[in-house]
Every structure is written in structure tokens, then in C-alpha cells.
Amino acid sequence: MTSPVSTAQHGNLAPIFISHGSPMLVARQSTPAFDFFATELGTELDGARAILMVSAHWQTATPTISTAARPETIHDFYGFPKPLYDLRYDVAGDPELAADIANLIGAATDATRGLDHGAWMPMILARPAADIPVFQLSMLAQGTPADHYTLGQKLRNLRDRGVLVIGSGAMTHNLHLLDQHDGPHVVDWARDFSNWMIDHASARDIDSLLDYRARAPHAVRAHPEDDHLMPFFVALGAADANYDGHILHDSYEFGTLAMTALRFATPAGAES
Fold it and tell me: pLDDT, tens digit, for every residue of 77-110?
């Protein structure tokens, strides 16, 4: 049983972490996660001038922000049905705003980088009208949780510019232990790890979260490589210090793949 979390104040552009799941999520239209992306996540994005997406699928030596005016849809996955490769998310970027943010945080820029599936896949479900500009910030290829948390802290004031920060990764990510039969069951270790992360995020126990690999139950099993959890730490760092943790979604696919989504909301009446 997870710790209680406060209800979020929607519309305050507080950062979000989402577990984007398999590229097949777009095609599998009968899952709780699909329903969340297609019917609920979109309203969490209302009021944003632009979305800065931090995806597990773009890593560079130094932080880099994409400044393409019309970012291409990158199909960075292999062995899936052809219709997935035909999908395009025809959304605008915002080169001027993206370059301004890059200058603000000391990041490089890349005018050719498109949107990888960690960015466009949730957005094509949540905002199919492509009515909010989207651009990406890369993760640090060799970065630790603390490095990504610090990177997120540099983004804390972006809401003043109308920019919503979304970290797109996975609460659990062990592709070798997926149950391809995908029944309704959940494997204990996946639930234990996810609940630990939710509990400590709710308690604002930043020190424990940054040391999750040593402290969380089944951490190495949940993340043999920890790249898909790093967007969580960017979103966490971008939150106000007194954030209220709010669970937006919490389901599982393939027995072990946690599709958890959290919002680190600014409490009502608190200053941004």
C-alpha cells in the first residue's frame, strides 16, 4: 500500500513524469495506460505555451535542446508492425523559445533533432491536434540521478514562461522479464519497487530517491540500466521544493512494466 499523496492543483504547469511504455501502446487500445494517455493526460497539459520533453531515448554528453521549427517524427524502434512506422506527429517546435531556454540553462542546441518515440508517442495520444509546441532536452549520457536532479533544478522557473516540463521514461524497465502473455497480474517485485518510489516521492525524501539503487527494493531488477528512470529525476528537480506529489496513473503491462505517471504539483497558494 502506497503512502497517501495530496490532490494536485491542475493547470499550474507543474512538472510531470510519465512512463511511456512500449511503442505498441498506440495500437493496444484496450489497456488502462492507453485510456490514460488518450483521455486524461491531455487535460493535464492545458494552459501550456510549450512542452519541454525529456525522453530516455535522447542522451548526449552535455545537455542539448532541440530547436527545429517542425521536428520530424523519429521511429527509433525495431521489429514492430508497419503501421507504427507510418505514424507522424506533425507538431510545431518553438525555435526562439527553445534557444532562449538553452541560453538560460547553459545547454547546447540542435536544429535537426526530431521527436523520438518517448516524446511523440504519448503526445499523439494526449494531444492528437498537435496544438502545443514540443521540443526536447537531452539526458546526460553518463549522468547519475543527482546529475539529472540538478539539471531539473535549472528548469524550475520555466513555468513563468508558460513551459511545462515532462520527463518521459519508465518507472520499471526490465525488458527481459516482460510477460508476453500480458495478463492482469502484477509481479511483486515490480509493484514493490514502484510503490517505494511513489512513497518516497510523496514524502519528498529526495536523498533516498537519489540513492534509489542502494535503498529501493529490487532496484537493479527493476532497472538493469537506469536510463529510463533518469527523466523522473529531471521532473523531480524541476518541481518546487514543497511540491505535492499526485499520482496521475498507476497500472502495469506485461506483468512487470509499471506505467506510473506522477505530477509534482505546486501547492495551492504557494509561490512559483
Answer: 888 889 889 999 999 999 999 999 999 999 999 9
Are the beta carbons of 74 and 152 closer than 8 angstroms?
no
Express as a percent the part of the chain with pLDDT over 90.
81
Distance CA(181)–CA(91), nearest Å, equals 35
| 166 bridge partner residues | 16, 53
**Contact of 263 with 219, CB cutoff 8 Å:** no
**Distance between CA 207 and CA 69 in Å, rounded?**
39
H or E, element range at 59: strand 59-60
Give the burial class of 180: count Cβ atoms within 10 A of its Cβ; 0-12 exposed, 13-18 middle, 19 or more buried.
Answer: exposed
Sign of CA dihedral 153, 157, 159, 163: negative
* Structure letter (DSSP) for residue 137: B
Report phi then psi at 149, rounded to 5: -65, -45
Residue 61, all three cell numbers: 554528453
27 pLDDT higher than 70: yes
Task: Answer yes or no: pTM beyond 0.85.
Answer: yes
Q: What is the pLDDT of residues 231-247, one digit of tens each?
A: 999 999 999 999 999 99
Does residue 216 come out as left (phi exceeding 0), alpha (psi in the -120 to 50 range) or beta? beta
**Cell 501550456 identifies what position?**
48
255 Ramachandran zone, left/alpha/beta (phi>0; psi -120 to 50): left
Q: How far apart are CA 153 and CA 81, in angstroms?
A: 39
Fold entry, domain 16-265: Protocatechuate 4,5-dioxygenase; Chain B (3.40.830)
